[in-house]
Write a structure and sequence with these properties.
alpha/beta, Metallo-beta-lactamase, Chain A, five-stranded mixed beta sheet, 35% helix, globular
Amino acid sequence: MTSRNLFALLACSALACTAQTNPDWHQPFPPFPIAGNLYYVGTADLAIYLITTPQGNILINSNFDQDLPALKKSIQQVGQKYQDTKILLISHAHGDHDAAIGTIQRETGAKLMVMAEDVDEVQSKAKGRPGARVDRVLHDGDTVELGRSRLTARLTPGHTKGCTTWTTKISDSGRLHDVVIVGSPNVNAGYYLVGNKNYPGIADDYRKTFAILKSLPCDIFLGAHGAYFGLKPKFEKFKTGDKNAFIDPDGYKTWVAAKEKEFTDELARAQAQPGTPKP
């Protein structure tokens, strides 16, 4: 078995383990407007975002194929049509975020746009991969536009080589908010930060990611997983009428700092035990 295959096996095993122990991954969640034309349409932890425009809609992430019926229902519940999906984006090339992206592409005819470093994984037809067709290859700082909505793709690598953090500005009740949808800065179980022959620059890439995340202006803090930004408790506030429940610039800074410490702690352990994966 090659080091590449071993790395993939460990990562997939960790992913499967997480899915088995996190019931929120496939737990339906009420769709709702976060701000302006930005909606949450994901599960209780696997985040999917819908941005609506008069020219059609943008969908960020897909989750797994088994989550598609819930996604379609959520899109309908916020008054939109699944077939109006015109652009597909992802946070990164892991199955919990992109496994169904090929199915959505085939069913809607939407254009799929992916960061260059994740293209091969998204187009792969290996087991568990979406086998999708990437219509536009993105690079750091590229923008995606539809109607009057514009998103900027920021390459925040490490978790995957093409992990993407999306930023945009959303107008809501006369106020313009900076929105950050974090790809992921997590170091998963099975990852090698030192002695990684398949990804020799992984530690440096994580360092670049934290530098970028700390530089981004953020009012509305979102991410690839609901747990990143406190989806459940914030939604409870939202239900009571707090329309600003997801405005959390301080929470964003605190979370990024905590994730950076997790990374530096794991890097120190890996440097002391080179060639060993994160337990």
